[in-house]
Write a structure and sequence with these properties.
Length: about 300
């Protein structure tokens, strides 16, 4: 819980870009409305065709103290544009961006706000926990703990967050997951790049964070609070549902664009000797492993594990 006093204007605007995800928002929206330090929720509907507006209104009526704003775009613009739009419309100086298929743990916004102010940081997130089918948030957190892998929390050669790495406390990293709290004025200054509008949208949230990082702003991730990603069996649409080959090709394309923009500054900031061409080659090999080889190996391991328990 937060024990430091906030400035009088330290309320948070929570911004959620979404498209045809009314079915996930029915589950996760209450966890947004129940955040401490929250002043409003801004929902940006990216030309969707479902009943997300009705879902937002129905759930929001149970929280009359939280302002809610709904905007539907007439044409698809992607999540980056939605984040930028939502921040521009926000009435409060601090903005929490949240994906539309994740629960937020109670106190998520307030803890991130405390750290942002206390450390004068550019962005702060909690930790992301991927839920398994049939799990509650409590069960998922008990399984995750402070991480499940003995690995460094950031792979500097790949410029990738290692989501499941074990660590305690608060770390300063070049970038974290997408559920970040930041300042409205920083979004206006550094912005989200709408280039990542199609395909799987890979790097769209990393772009803004890396822009902060190479300009000297700290990006923090705290082990004190968590977001809970719904099991993939409950997420029917979106970038993670792109077919493997397309997902691989889009990842290579967007990662190349991202590295062309930021690699020189990133490399200087972290003291990395690896040249740009090698960074791209390593990333391509990693995407191939992640998309084509890891899933069947993981599935086989899970089946073996299940068989041994019977």
């Amino acid at each position: 819980m937060v024990h430091i006093p906030f400035p009088a204007d330290a309320l948070v605007s929570l911004v959620v870009p979404t498209r045809n995800r009314a079915y996930t928002l029915r589950k996760v929206l209450p966890s947004y409305f129940e955040q401490a330090a929250l002043g409003e929720i801004v929902l940006i509907d990216d030309a969707g065709t479902d009943d997300v507006a009705d879902v937002f209104d129905t759930i929001g009526q149970h929280y009359p103290h939280i302002d809610r704003r709904y905007v539907r775009n007439g044409a698809r613009g992607g999540a980056s544009l939605g984040r930028q739009q939502g921040a521009a419309l926000a009435h409060h100086p601090y903005v929490l961006f949240c994906d539309d298929d994740e629960y937020l743990e109670p106190g998520y916004a307030a803890e991130c706000l405390r750290l942002l102010i206390e450390h004068d940081a550019g962005a702060v997130s909690g930790r992301r926990v991927y839920m398994m089918a049939g799990e509650t948030e409590a069960q998922a957190l008990a399984r995750f703990g402070n991480g499940m892998r003995r690995a460094a929390p950031f792979d500097y050669r790949l410029c990738e967050l290692v989501n499941g790495a074990r660590f305690d406390g608060v770390l300063s990293l070049p970038l974290t997951n997408s559920n970040i709290l930041t300042r409205k004025d920083l979004v206006a200054r550094f912005g989200f790049d709408p280039h990542y509008a199609t395909g799987n949208g890979y790097r769209e949230e990393s772009d803004y964070q890396m822009n902060l990082f190479v300009h000297g702003w700290r990006v923090l991730v705290s082990n004190a609070v968590h977001s809970f990603h719904l099991p993939m069996s409950e997420v029917r649409t979106g970038g993670q549902r792109v077919r493997r080959m397309r997902k691989f090709l889009w990842s290579v394309r967007y990662n190349g664009y991202f590295l062309d923009k930021y690699y020189a500054g990133y490399r200087r900031a972290v003291g990395l000797a690896q040249p740009l061409w090698l960074a791209k080659a390593r990333a391509t090999a990693y995407f191939a492993w992640r998309n084509f080889f890891r899933p069947p190996l993981y599935g086989a391991a899970m089946r073996l594990r299940h068989g041994l328990r019977r």
